[in-house]
Write a structure and sequence with these properties.
About 60% of the residues lie in helices and about 0% in strands. It has helices at about 15-25, 35-55, 60-75, 85-95, 105-115, 120-140, 145-155, 165-175, 185-205, 205-215, 225-235, 250-260, 270-290, 295-310, 315-340, 340-350, 355-370, 395, 410-415, 430-435, 440-445, 465-485; strands at about 385-390, 420-425. About 25% of the residues are buried. The chain is an all-alpha fold and about 500 residues long. The longest helix is centred in the last third of the chain and has 22 residues, at about 315-340.
């Protein structure tokens, strides 16, 4: 006898289910965690409208909808009943082997289930998977999906592997009597929970959250305020303008350090030096020069495992500082072996604000150089923009009143770093007000009155043209190398 069941689509939380119901009813739903649902429904609505618009008569439209309904109702859901949980896990894995793309995350969850008969632990595993999904929705980084999350946890704790080989690595080590390293499911769950907490701290904590953490870890006396602020700046990923937001290969290192914070001496220069080396490779190697990232992925995971091992071995402050110093040496050597000064200077010269892909890099360079020279832009992040010193309207209007005759290729150099600087996006010194004013007016009333140290460059400059742009480009190239390069021997 066939058993007929009524299935209902359930999401990861009751709140999400309610939001989904509202979306289906055509109601507006707020919240970035529901953005995907809203976009999917809008896409479906647009597809319906498009298909229906291609049917001229009412009869054709009705026929299309009836045909679509029949196809939807023809979808079959098969319920497989087996006598034991172990049989269920074996069937689940076998289905994947037959070609169903279940994904490593689902397989890993299934395997953890299969290695414990403790029902409460199984419930906890299921709940943790839901929490991870919720965290990743809040983090909202396309490159960090469920499988990537689990992979970064694994390569930062045990061994480097690809997404494709992740599941087989799990199987070899979790409760496997034939493995040299047997990991119990409850320990894996605990480590995954800790890694999720680290991801939340890295991507979701505000500047003030991190500041309070470091105050609690260190006495906030006069001598340590600067050290605490500096550490806070490095950990506050939400300082989007001072970090390069696409980078995630560093996650195994950051997560391992967060779990070792109580063993780190903030006064030790190597702590900050490690972050500087990470940023150099993330920015210069990966984004400015667009070099393959698989090699740095391997290095960062190796360093993460070294630091993570200090936790496993209950290491002390001296151990973690030693590992950090060793890591700095490895990263610095990698940079020297794979990056040259000439290619960095060339890449900086070729950046153009007209190119969407270059805008983020230009923004990162200008803001970080401001910070590098002692500026403090955290409170102004939402009010920052770039000003073309020689106005960009020259491309549309030709000669501009109060400006010298164009003596350089504007398309090539006018949108580059030699002709760009930081200004506020609104207020009396906003770049919109400065656009076509004569250079000396821009210098005195905008650049020198702005809060940005980078604009002190213009203090003694009396005119602006091709030569000045090339001099400033060289000045920025030198700063970029000083900030993200290495000492040449």
């Amino acid at each position: 006898m066939t058993k007929v069941l009524n299935y209902k689509l359930e999401l990861y939380s009751e709140e999400a289910n309610q939001a989904f119901a509202q979306i289906l009813n055509g109601d507006n739903v707020e919240g970035k965690e529901f953005k995907g649902l809203v976009e999917a429904q809008n896409k479906l609505n647009n597809l319906f409208a498009d298909y229906l618009s291609k049917r001229e008569t009412v009869e054709q439209k009705i026929s299309f909808l009836v045909e679509l309904k029949i196809k939807i109702l023809d979808v079959k859901i098969i319920e497989v009943l087996v006598p034991t949980d172990e049989d269920a896990y074996l069937i689940f894995e076998a289905v994947n082997d037959r070609g169903a793309d279940l994904g490593a995350a689902e397989l890993l969850k299934n395997y953890l289930f299969s290695k414990t008969s403790d029902k409460s632990l199984q419930i906890e595993i299921h709940q943790e998977w839901q929490k991870i999904k919720k965290t990743l929705l809040e983090v909202n980084k396309g490159s960090l999906d469920m499988t990537s999350f689990l992979r970064y946890y694994w390569i930062g704790a045990y061994e480097h592997t690809t997404k494709k080989a992740l599941y087989s690595g799990f199987k070899k080590r979790i409760n496997n009597k034939n493995s040299t390293l047997v990991i119990a499911p409850d320990r894996v769950l605990q480590e995954i929970q800790e890694f999720r907490n680290c991801i939340e701290e890295i991507f979701l904590y505000r500047f003030d959250d991190w500041h309070q953490i470091f105050i609690n870890l260190n006495s906030d006396d006069g001598n340590e305020k600067r050290i605490i602020r500096r550490a806070t700046e490095w950990f506050s990923y939400k300082r989007n303008l001072l970090y390069f937001p696409k980078s995630i290969q560093f996650l195994p290192v950051y997560a391992a350090i967060i779990r070792n914070l109580d063993k780190i001496n903030l006064k030790d220069k190597s702590f900050i030096d490690l972050f500087i080396e990470i940023e150099k490779i993330n920015f210069v190697y990966s984004y400015l020069l667009q070099k393959p990232t698989n090699r740095i992925d391997t290095i960062f995971s190796s360093i993460g495992r070294e630091i993570f091992s200090v936790i496993i071995l209950n290491g002390k402050e001296a151990n973690i500082q030693s590992v950090i110093q060793k890591s700095i040496t490895i990263l610095n050597k990698f940079l020297r072996d794979n990056v040259t000064k000439d290619e960095v200077y060339k890449a900086v010269a070729n950046l153009s604000y007209k190119q969407i892909s270059d805008k983020q890099i230009i923004n990162f360079i200008l803001v970080n150089l401001e910070y590098f020279q002692g500026g403090y832009v955290r409170l102004l992040e939402d009010n920052l923009t770039k000003d073309h010193i020689y106005p960009q309207s020259v491309e549309k209007k030709g000669a501009i009143l109060d400006w010298p005759k164009l003596d350089f290729d504007y398309k090539k150099f006018g949108h580059g770093l030699g002709n760009l600087t930081l200004l506020a996006s609104d207020g009396p010194q906003a770049n919109g007000s400065a656009e076509e004013k004569a250079f000396l007016i821009k210098r005195d009333d905008f650049y020198l009155k702005s809060p940005f140290i980078i604009n002190q460059y213009f203090r003694d400059i009396e005119q602006w043209g091709g030569n000045e742009i090339m001099f400033r480009l060289k000045y920025i190239q030198d700063l970029v190398w000083e900030r993200w390069g290495y000492l040449e021997t």
